[in-house]
Write a structure and sequence with these properties.
The chain has about 220 residues and is an alpha/beta fold. About 40% of the residues lie in helices and about 20% in strands. The chain has a 7-stranded mixed sheet with strand order 3-2-1-4-5-7-6, sandwiched between helices. A hairpin with an 8-residue loop joins strand 6 and strand 7. Helix 2 packs antiparallel against helix 4, helix 3 packs across helix 4 and helix 7 packs across helix 8.
């Protein structure tokens, strides 16, 4: 089979990850490598790396998501990490939040083609209408959306107390935590930590910054 960027992954661990939904994961990979590139959702150089860099990198985050969780994916873009997570975990209630109309249109087309029960909200996580609609989530996910302190300001208000923010990050995550931990705590988050997901499935394992919502944001002096 040619290496076209979405050829079938034969590793048993990958087949186990998606189970009966592996054919849907294959079809999603094909969409990413074709219309996803054509319509500017991912770069043309990413097509040969669809599986490791995008689909598996996101799907393995399922290790950190509790059973039956209500998940909001912020800044979803090409449906990452939301769609791979939903493919690996059909028990999840998934909402994709994306502000750009052309991306929302593509997401709706792909979700319809795959027959997935995923909702799509056009908007930004920081908008009051989005918060009112989707607050109380068990988990809020994101991937390469914003620096940690800004991301916490957007994501933590969408979580129920005790809910978890899962931010897929790169190798510099520990430095980002050191820089932004105080700001995250002011916004109502607990101490951020790094988790590695997908050992034996994706190399290197995915780096995820985990923050639990523990409190309401702290008011600064002088605020009403």
């Amino acid at each position: 089979m040619p290496d076209d960027g979405f050829a079938e992954p034969l590793a048993p661990a990958v087949e186990k990850l998606f189970g009966e939904r592996l054919p849907l994961a294959l079809r999603f990979a094909e969409h990413l490598a074709t219309s996803g590139v054509e319509r500017g959702l991912i770069g043309p150089r990413e097509a040969p790396r669809i599986w490791d860099r995008h689909i598996l990198n996101c799907a393995v985050v399922a290790e950190l998501v509790p059973d039956g969780a209500r998940v909001v994916d912020v800044g979803s873009g090409a449906g990452l990490p939301g769609i791979p997570l939903a493919l690996a975990r059909p028990d999840l209630g998934m909402v994709l939040v994306e502000p750009l109309a052309r991306r929302v249109e593509w997401l709706l087309e792909i979700i319809g083609d795959l027959g997935l029960s995923i909702e799509v909200e056009r908007g930004r996580a920081e908008e009051n209408t989005v918060r009112r609609q989707w607050e109380g989530a068990d988990v809020v996910t994101s991937r390469a959306v914003a620096p940690l302190h800004r991301l916490a300001g957007w994501c933590l208000p969408l979580l129920r107390p005790g809910g978890t923010m899962l931010a897929v990050k790169g190798a510099s995550a520990p430095e980002e935590i050191e820089r932004d931990e105080a700001a995250v705590r002011r916004l109502g988050g607990g101490a951020p930590r790094v988790e590695r997901c997908g050992a034996g499935i994706v190399d290197p394992p995915s780096t995820v910054v985990v923050v639990e919502r523990v409190d309401r944001p702290r008011r600064r002096r002088g605020q009403a």
